[in-house]
Amino acid sequence: MSVNPLLLNFPTSFDTERLTLRAPRPGDGAALHAVILASLPELKPWMPWVHPVPTVADTEANVRKAVAQFVSREDLRLHLYLRDTDTLIGSSGLHRIDWTVPRFEIGYWVGTPCAGRGYITEAVTGITAFARDHLGARRVEIRMDERNERSWRVAERAGFTLEAVLRQEHRSPDGTLGDQRIYAKIF
């Protein structure tokens, strides 16, 4: 990409049918922490950042770091809210960015009370369109542990193509070696 990403102007929030996705803001930590705590059994097998369980202060510090990374265009975290409410239900965003392609990876999780309702598939579809339309994405990836079937089903429902399964690619939070599935969309 010939444009310096620091000079890119794009929306810091957008809506899908049922969600508002917006960049993190200082002060989001307490609400995010509550959703994390309510979802620990589902997050612990896949998310290393819940080991050890973060405190409210840890979560707020993480949010503030995410704010800085959004502004610097290093990482574009998005918090997920039920549309027209202040109800935070999870987090997603564009990570592992390579602006020279441009290439992005979508990561996601949703709070347990909202799981199984299609919110993450809706968010992934919206974020993919955002990356293509506002950031000039040529490639968007989704990566997950091979054992996380719920996560790879999201990628499939959102129209991503399985490109590879990398064997023994990472250590899972429980210490075992895990295989990683890589899905992608090309524009």
Set down the secondary structure blueprint:
Elements: E1 13-15, E2 19-22, H1 29-38, H2 40-43, H3 56-72, E3 76-82, E4 88-98, E5 103-110, H4 119-135, E6 139-145, H5 149-157, E7 161-171, E8 177-186
Parallel strand pairs: 5-6
Antiparallel strand pairs: 1-2, 2-3, 3-4, 4-5, 6-8, 7-8
Helix pairs in contact: 1-3
Low-confidence stretches: none
Q: Give the percentage of residues in beta strands.
A: 25-35%
Q: Can you tell me the CATH architecture of the domain at 14-138?
A: 3-Layer(aba) Sandwich
Task: Name the quaternary structure.
Answer: single chain
Give the CATH topology of the domain at 14-138: Aminopeptidase
Structural class computed from helices and strand pairing? alpha+beta
What is the helix tally?
Answer: 5
- The top level CATH class name of the domain at 14-138: Alpha Beta
Q: Label the overall shape.
A: globular
Write the element-wise H/E pattern from the N-terminal end onward.
EEHHHEEEHEHEE
Terminus-to-terminus distance: 14 Å
Radius of gyration: 16 Å
- Sheet with the most strands: spatial strand order: 1-2-3-4-5-6-8-7
Q: Average pLDDT value?
A: 97
Q: What is the assigned CATH homologous superfamily of the domain at 14-138?
A: Gcn5-related N-acetyltransferase (GNAT)
Largest sheet report? 8 strands, mixed
| Strand runs, count | 8
- As a percent range, the share of helical residues equals 25-40%
